């Protein structure tokens, strides 16, 4: 019996030493920590965290009823640069925001307003607000001199806050699934005054048109208007966005590649996936500088020979269309590195396919190639990875 007791005591000593070792590891060389997971493991370990951690994640996921306000009082957070609070209930008047924070994410916390002391975060560069009942009163964040990126997803915001304009530092705005925010003239008027803007994402927001006021955004380089189901045409004002290099108009209602696209010689990436496009017309010849062209999941049957003018094209993705025959001109795209033709109705490739000497990946899954044709393709492209079985990578 004594042996059993001694053995049991030795186990307890071992476990205690192991726990102390874990707590010591918390105190050394930690740069990132999920405090909620730590809380589950050892409620006393929180107070042992040193003040040199840089990233702090609070993710409750409704698994417990932790009082975040009280919990954070035990954390030495003076050097934290990234803070994420997700699915936690906390008081927006708390004062824990560290002054050195550069990135803040508030996701699913049932907030009605932004934390009052967010205005103390003078180095804040990126702000994400998602899944909130928040209506976005910006009075307490209008003095954020370093903010350059803001992502607002699924909130009750109903207008572009004046603070966006007053900051003068915003380079990227992502607005997604904010059903109370109307994309109308008033909306575009507010946006047009954000002269520093380089990236604009308006996703799943019932966009119907691009207002002429958007042409005031002279520095805009990326425009994403995806998931706007009734968006199917572009006005003349789009011509004036002369510095745009990347357009992403996925999951809209375009039946042709917009003519306005062909007038912009600076486009480097065009993504029109998940629309209703049926043909690649001769106008494609004007897009001479495009490097990435993605037309996945459309209804494309015909491709113009004028495609050969795209001598800078490196990625060409036509996944899941209705193509039965490729033009010979595609073999003249000598810069092409990735070509995705999977899920079409092809049974043969052009004879001159060997001219694509820089091709690294060719995706031909789910087509109608015979064994002989497969062997011919592989033989003519000895330095290319050719996929006939489904191993497709998503091209972005």
Topology:
Elements lengths: L1 H25 L5 E3 H7 L13 E5 L8 H5 L9 E5 L16 E5 L18 E5 L18 E5 L8 H6 L4 E5 L8 H7 L7 E5 L18 E3 L21 E3 L20 E3 L7 E2 L11 E3 L7 E2 L11 E3 L20 E3 L20 E3 L7 H10 L4 E3 L9
Parallel strand pairs: 1-2, 2-3, 3-4, 4-5, 5-6, 6-7, 7-8, 8-9, 9-10, 10-11, 11-13, 12-14, 13-15, 15-16, 16-17, 17-18
Major sheet attributes: 16 strands, parallel
User: Can you list the strand order of the major beta sheet?
Assistant: 1-2-3-4-5-6-7-8-9-10-11-13-15-16-17-18
Structural class: alpha/beta
Extended strand count: 18
Order of helices and strands: HEHEHEEEEHEHEEEEEEEEEEHE
Overview of this protein structure:
The chain contains six helices and 18 strands. With about 400 residues, the chain is an alpha/beta fold. The termini are far apart. Mean pLDDT is about 80; it is low at about 20-30 and about 390-395.
Which characteristics define this entry?
16-stranded parallel sheet, 396 residues, 3 domains, 17% strand, Leucine-rich repeat, LRR (right-handed beta-alpha superhelix), disordered C terminus, two-stranded parallel ribbon, alpha/beta, 6 helices
Short description:
The protein is an alpha/beta fold.
């Amino acid at each position: 019996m004594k042996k059993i007791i001694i053995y049991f005591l030795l186990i307890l000593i071992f476990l205690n030493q192991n726990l102390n070792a874990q707590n010591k590891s918390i105190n050394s060389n930690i740069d990132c920590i999920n405090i909620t997971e730590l809380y589950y493991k050892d409620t006393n370990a929180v107070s042992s965290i040193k003040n040199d951690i840089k990233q702090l994640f609070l993710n409750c996921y409704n698994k417990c009823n932790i009082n975040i306000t009280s919990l954070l009082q035990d954390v030495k957070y003076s050097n934290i640069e990234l803070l994420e609070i997700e699915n936690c209930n906390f008081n927006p008047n708390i004062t824990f925001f560290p002054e050195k924070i550069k990135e803040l994410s508030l996701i699913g916390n049932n907030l009605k307003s932004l934390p009052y002391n967010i205005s103390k975060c003078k180095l804040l560069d990126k702000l994400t607000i998602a899944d909130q009942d928040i209506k976005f009163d910006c009075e307490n964040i209008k003095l954020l001199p370093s903010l350059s990126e803001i992502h607002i997803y699924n909130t009750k915001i109903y207008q572009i806050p004046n603070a966006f304009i007053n900051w003068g530092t915003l380079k990227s705005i992502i607005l997604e699934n904010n059903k109370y925010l109307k994309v109308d003239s008033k909306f575009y008027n507010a946006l047009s005054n954000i002269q520093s803007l380089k990236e604009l994402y308006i996703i799943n927001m019932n966009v119907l048109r691009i207002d002429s006021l958007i042409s005031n955004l002279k520095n805009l380089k990326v425009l994403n208007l995806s998931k706007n189901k009734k968006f199917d045409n572009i006005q003349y004002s789009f011509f004036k966005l002369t510095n745009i290099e990347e357009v992403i108009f996925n999951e809209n209602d375009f039946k042709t590649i917009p003519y306005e696209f062909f007038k912009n010689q600076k486009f480097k990436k065009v993504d029109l996936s998940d629309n209703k496009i049926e043909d690649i017309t001769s106008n494609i010849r004007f897009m001479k500088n495009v490097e990435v062209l993605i037309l996945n999941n459309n209804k494309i049957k015909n491709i113009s020979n004028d495609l050969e003018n795209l001598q800078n094209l490196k990625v060409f993705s036509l996944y899941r269309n209705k193509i039965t025959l490729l033009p010979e001109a595609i073999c003249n795209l000598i810069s092409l590195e990735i070509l995705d033709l999977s899920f079409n109705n092809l049974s043969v490739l052009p004879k001159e396919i060997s001219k694509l000497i820089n091709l690294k990946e060719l995706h031909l899954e789910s087509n109608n190639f015979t064994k002989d044709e497969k062997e011919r393709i592989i033989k003519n492209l000895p330095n290319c990875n050719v996929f006939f079985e489904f191993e497709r990578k998503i091209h972005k």
